[in-house]
Design goal:
With about 325 residues, the protein is α/β, with parallel strands linked by helices. The chain has helices spanning about 1-45, 55-65, 70, 115-120, 130, 150-160, 165-175, 190, 210-215, 245-255, 295-315; strands spanning about 90-95, 105-110, 135-140, 160-165, 180-185, 200, 220-225, 235, 260-265, 275-280, 330. It is built from 11 helices and 11 strands. A 7-stranded mixed β-sheet has the order 1-10-7-2-5-3-4, with helices on both faces. Strands 6-11 form a two-stranded parallel ribbon. The chain has a two-stranded antiparallel sheet with strand order 8-9. Strand 3 (about 135-140), helix 6 (about 150-160) and strand 4 form a beta-alpha-beta unit. The protein is globular, with a radius of gyration of 21 Å.
Length: about 325
Amino acid sequence: RSKIQSVAGMTKEKTQWKELLEALSVLQWVLTFLFLGLSCIILLVCLMFTSLWPLSTLCFVWLVIDWQTPERGKENDSIQSSMTVYGFHFKKLKTADLSPNKNYIFGCHPHGIMSAGAFSCFSTESCGFSEIFPGIRSCLAILAGLFRIPLFREYIMSAGLYPVSKASLVHLLSKSGKGNAVVIVIGGAAESLSSSPGMNTVVIKQRKGFVKVALEFGADLVPVYSFGENELFQQVIFSEGSLGRKLQDLFKKVMGFAPCLFVGERFALLPYRKPVTTVVGHPIPVPKRLMPTEEEVDHYHRLYMEALTKLFHEHKVSCGLSESHKLQLI
């Protein structure tokens, strides 16, 4: 009996340590998302007024010299690690095979507060992307302005991230061979403002640039939906026309991202322990058109929205939503 009690005590202690390490790892990820870029800017500016000013100068000089590198990417497999952490987990479901002889544009929805589903599934190997889609290389494209922050840009480049810019997309879809899946969180900052538990709002109706790029390079479109993304944090949602929403929209227009007021489960920052299931839909065949017409862009944009809606309704119940949940496209 004493041996059993000893083993039980050791198991409990290991579980507690495991939970602590998981909580710390997620806290690090959240703090990095929220504050690392700003911290890098503040650090370099402060160093300019000290005897260490040459360090800041060298960082800014390197930024100018190395300006084009983010568009070409910087692969590093050291960060391709598991993200089954803090009592919640990420998983990916595929609905069709993808040919490694094609290039793809994945439209990922919804943005959520931090795009946890997109990052974990397409910028790490936590969901086993390379095993599920052999021969396909996922490339997550994020806000281009983040790659203009010295030091921070090196950090996000080491994670294999790309700027969501035309130059970056051209490189990935025309100069990197075949088997590339460029992942774009289509709704961006505007969609993050609609992120809250129980809401399934997708900003897509006026977002047609990704469809035009797909036509220019003949890249098939693939709708992706992360069920549970909006359940990770509670957000204060300001109504349209309110002062709070106007300030958010102004900040988004100036800075390119929206300041969301949100809280999590512990320390107000850790996400709620909810599973996130990212479902990758069927590819939509797209022909190559060097100069696509507006009618062609509208046609494939409509096909994409229909495929996204179908994907949502086919998998919502199995992914934890009720039959009554609807997908709102705005």
